[in-house]
Amino acid sequence: xxxxxxxxxxxxxxxxxAEADGTSFDDVSMEEIASxxxxxxxxxxxxxxxxxQVLAFLLTAMLDDIATNVEGAAATADDARTRLVNVVxxxxxxxxxxxxxxxxxxxxxxxxxxxxxIAAGIDRAFQAPVRDILAxxxxxxxxxxxxxxxxxxxxxxxxxxxGLNALMLxxxxxxxxxxxALVVLWGGLDPARGSG
Length: 196
Description:
By secondary structure, the chain is mainly alpha-helical. The protein contains 10 helices and no strands. Helix 4 packs parallel to helix 7. It is elongated and about 60 Å long. The model has no long low-confidence stretch (mean pLDDT 86).
């Protein structure tokens, strides 16, 4: 789904409603989505055939936010480890900005679109930039020798789980606290630790 095809005002209403009421999509109907968003049912159906398409819109919008934040964090002239920390912070900040949507989407990933499309969106938004940073860091000797592809996946998983854990336990995500919880990443990537 192309987020830019959805009128901005409609998109903002859906995003705001997801944050206000985004706990579950199991028993929600398109009529209820229309009621909560204040969008006429006909307008909602014009842009979305089903509630799964609404979920896909929410996921795409969130991944676009992460991609924008990550792109800026990855494009600095800092060393690889600093850029990696900044990229992780960018994902955590996106989750902190939309806590209910983050939880809603993770709980409904299988319904939010085709899994290959979701995987491609996650790769574009987070994993590809992390792979690039890791590869550059290994080449520069700033990061120990690792395979960037599975390491980027592991980092995405760790960041997502730490962020979601904070949201579920505390109802909010403290970016600095969550970043500190990921300390194992920073020590594990230390080039002084070698490759073993």
